């Protein structure tokens, strides 16, 4: 996951010194909040003379067109427009603007608002705090909004801004978020290298529970135990989910097993000389490793580290083994690319 350092969250360090610090950290983007203020392009002009780090500008204005000449001149790599401040449709961008364009939404805006921006925008920025203000608290409901957006607009990159600390960063990476903006956590840290390392760390402990960011049950490929004897139906469930697994639940909603791509391959190898002999019991692992929904991130990671084999999918259950969700770790890998 890319990290965009919010420039104006650091108020006391001279710009040349601050840019040298950030360049030494090999930060991915410089995030600049533009609260209807053309003078921020003076800072961008200065940054261009001392750094090659890409610029990520967030324009918060009801008159975005007045910024178009400056965008043509300074060519920031990323430009985001705040949806709630626009008085109508975004005016057509001039030909000279070559930036990747995105739109920002506050927490209360439904994800369906992105529909109007699809032809223009290659990414969305979810604001979890007040746009343009530093030091806010992350809005936990953003986790669900990210999942809903991914389901409705697959392939569109997701950026997140507001209250991102090391723990939130780990969760966002696991969810496949492309970029997070770090304000006070990084920019006001006395040890910026240490703060950046924690933002990218795979070992995190904190307040969030697995149930806070898991994939919810209704979003998962789940097949009833009574239907799992139908081999074709079981295989189709795994294939059509495009997640590489399917979960089996009994009539009471309790987890009865998991089928993964690996299980399917193992069954094929076992019965290679007689494929007709394959049955559902060859595919279903009735005792998969699971994690309790109330486990912390640290407890979940300890469970994974203690497991003697790699884990790509982790069913989430409650105290009586009722299936409530799952964690898929493929996004952690994709999020680092």
UniProtKB/TrEMBL annotation:
Q: Which residues form the CBS domain?
A: 216-275, 284-337
- Its domain of life reads Bacteria
The record's PROSITE patterns line, in alphabetical order, gives: CBS
- BP GO terms, sorted: carbohydrate metabolic process
InterPro entries of this UniProt entry?
Aldolase_TIM, CBS_dom, CBS_dom_sf, Ribul_P_3_epim-like, RibuloseP-bd_barrel
Q: Which UniProt keywords apply?
A: CBS domain, Isomerase, Metal-binding
One GO MF term on file is: metal ion binding
Leader sequence residues: none
Protein known as: Pentose-5-phosphate-3-epimerase/predicted transcriptional regulator
In which organism is this protein found?
Desulfurispira natronophila
Lineage runs:
Bacteria, Pseudomonadati, Chrysiogenota, Chrysiogenia, Chrysiogenales
């Amino acid at each position: 996951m890319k990290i965009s350092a919010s420039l104006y969250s650091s108020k006391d360090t001279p710009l040349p010194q601050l840019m040298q610090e950030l360049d030494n950290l090999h930060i991915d983007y410089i995030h600049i909040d533009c609260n209807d203020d053309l003078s921020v392009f003076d800072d961008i002009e200065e940054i261009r003379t001392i750094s090659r780090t890409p610029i990520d500008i967030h324009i918060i204005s009801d008159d975005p067109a007045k910024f178009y000449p400056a965008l043509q001149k300074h060519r920031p790599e990323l430009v985001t427009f705040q949806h709630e401040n626009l008085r109508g449709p975004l005016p057509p961008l001039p030909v000279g603007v070559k930036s990747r364009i995105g739109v920002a939404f506050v927490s209360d805006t439904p994800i369906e608002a992105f529909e109007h921006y699809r032809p223009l925008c290659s990414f969305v920025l979810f604001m979890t705090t007040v746009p343009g203000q530093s030091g806010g608290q992350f809005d936990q409901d953003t986790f669900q909004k990210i999942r809903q957006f991914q389901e409705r607009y697959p392939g569109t990159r997701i950026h997140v801004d507001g209250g991102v600390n090391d723990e939130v960063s780990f969760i966002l990476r696991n969810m496949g978020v492309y970029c997070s903006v770090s304000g006070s956590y990084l920019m006001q840290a006395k040890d910026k290298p240490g703060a950046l390392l924690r933002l990218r760390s795979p070992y995190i402990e904190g307040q969030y529970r697995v149930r806070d960011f898991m994939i919810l049950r209704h979003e998962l490929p789940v097949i009833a135990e009574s239907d799992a004897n139908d081999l074709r139906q079981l295989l189709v469930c795994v294939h059509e989910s495009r997640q590489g697994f399917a979960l089996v639940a009994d009539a009471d909603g309790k987890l009865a097993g998991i089928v993964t791509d690996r299980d399917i391959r193992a069954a094929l190898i076992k019965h290679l000389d007689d494929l007709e002999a394959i049955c559902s019991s060859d595919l279903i692992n009735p005792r998969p490793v699971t994690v309790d929904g109330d486990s912390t991130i640290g407890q979940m990671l300890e469970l994974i580290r203690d497991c003697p084999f790699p884990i790509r999918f982790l069913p989430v259950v409650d105290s009586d083994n009722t299936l409530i969700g799952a964690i898929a770790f493929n996004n952690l890998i994709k999020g680092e690319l």
